[in-house]
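I am hoping you can look over what I have pasted underneath with an eye to the fold:
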Amino acid sequence: MKVRNWIRTVPTLVIIGAVLFMVLTVGGGLLMYGHNFANHIVSSQLSEQKITFPAQGSPALDPKEFPGLQRYAGLAVDNGPKAKAYADQFIKKHLEGVASGQTYSQVSAAAQKDPTNTQLQAQANTLFKGETLRGLLLNAWGWATVGAIAYWVAMAAFLGALAVLGALILGFAMHERGIHKAVTRITDSPVAVG
């Protein structure tokens, strides 16, 4: 019986607002957890591999050949953007020179047809290792990107929760003000004596 009376007295918008506030707050918290989890896993897994960009001025990081990598010179590959840069601008560039731009699948098919060709076998081996490492680094970048998206969606959810909370507080204040005005009108009105 009390629940029915409470539902009648509480406006539907307040119930919807309270539920929306809770959903946005909990959702934002879970998204922030996902962001932190993805960043931690990507960073810790990449750090364990101890991959570093060649040092500044090193022939392995020629500014003419690798202009986009100069800002990473000498740094460890420990986050998503660095993993993508290393995979797409360093490893990929080196792999293009292994077998005249052919991929592992192309060279491997030729090596299987000619198993005595040691040059093809070596190229297939190098391309397999390089493409595997490149794929793993791009996978790490992908998860870092998912983590970054989760962060921004969490921020939007928290801002939405704040907006809903502000609307609830404003609605409560306006409701109380309306009640106060109604009570004042009733107490100030002259009573008809008859």
